[in-house]
Amino acid sequence: MRKIRYAVVGxxxxxxxxxxxxxxxxxRFELAALGCRTEExxxxxxxxxxxxxxxxxxxxxxxxxxxxxxxxxxxxxxxTVRHWLAKGYPVLSETPAALSMEELAALWQLRQAGAKVQVxxxxxxxxxxxxxxxxxxxGLLGQPVSAYLSAMHDxxxxxxxxxxxGLGREEMRLTGCTFAVPVTATRTRTEVLxxxxxxxxxxxxxxxxxxxxxxxxxxxxxxxYHSLIRPRTLRLRGTRGELDDRTVCWLNDKNLPxxxxxxxxxxxxxxxxxxxAFQGRTLYAPPFGPCGLPEDETAIAQxxxxxxxxxxxxxxxxxxxxxxxxxxxxxxxASPAVTPGAGLDGPAGEGLAPGWYQRRTGPRPWK
Length: 367
Description:
The protein is an alpha/beta fold. The protein contains nine helices and 20 strands. A hairpin with a 5-residue loop joins strand 13 and strand 14 (257-261).
């Protein structure tokens, strides 16, 4: 198997994931270059992380990568993707693909014209989440009916809910509201907080009603990724059973209830998931063999591999149309910018309490 060589444009914290993958799996992946804006930043990335950091586009191109990974901030993501596509490079974009309907439509137009672009939406390929999705697809729980998700935000959640419910890009109605909630700060991305300070955080609730008759509830607190007291919760209800995080309840062939747990084996030192099983059946095994990568990097490594396969064969691991649909859904989920009850396309949600809004999907070119 030929080694996958990629260059990352952007030097924020997300770019470091791609460096760790290359170091953990050097026989499969090579970070050809990490593009920084200045030589000062490049020198710091080389010294602190041992990455092949360079300054300027010319230096990135000189590394001759197979494709570009766009890992800039959200505001500049779509512009960066389009810039490198115009240079003739395949591009794997970090999420979200874009922040407006106009940008999403422009990306789809480029894809239709032959541009090789994909989006690195990783959560479905997390080892434990992937195992859960596999269990749901097995039919053990019957036909998916509803889901509750309090684990990831916006476009990530939109994609996970579609996966859990087995939905395509169907029409839906959203009803939601965002609250300011006092919580105790416990951790940031870089440090544990023990002062006991109570701060206001955003908590967003959204009810999804899908055309197929399925429903879902999204519940996310803005500190959820880092908080030490905010567990992640996933629940899927089917016609013959329910998945509640790692607990599975279902009806057997005699329509009698059974209950069991997902068996997750992991390395406590590295965070790597070494296997997920259910009643002796393997639902997940490390796709690259044990290598010390935690769930996020394991999932992103699969996106890198999927990008290489897409360039070679045209097969999409996570179709761009799905990525655009999930980013579009995130736009619908956003709180009203001006007036409570105002949707993207005008007033909506008459009769709702103040602060609540209701939105429906509209025309989009990728559907």
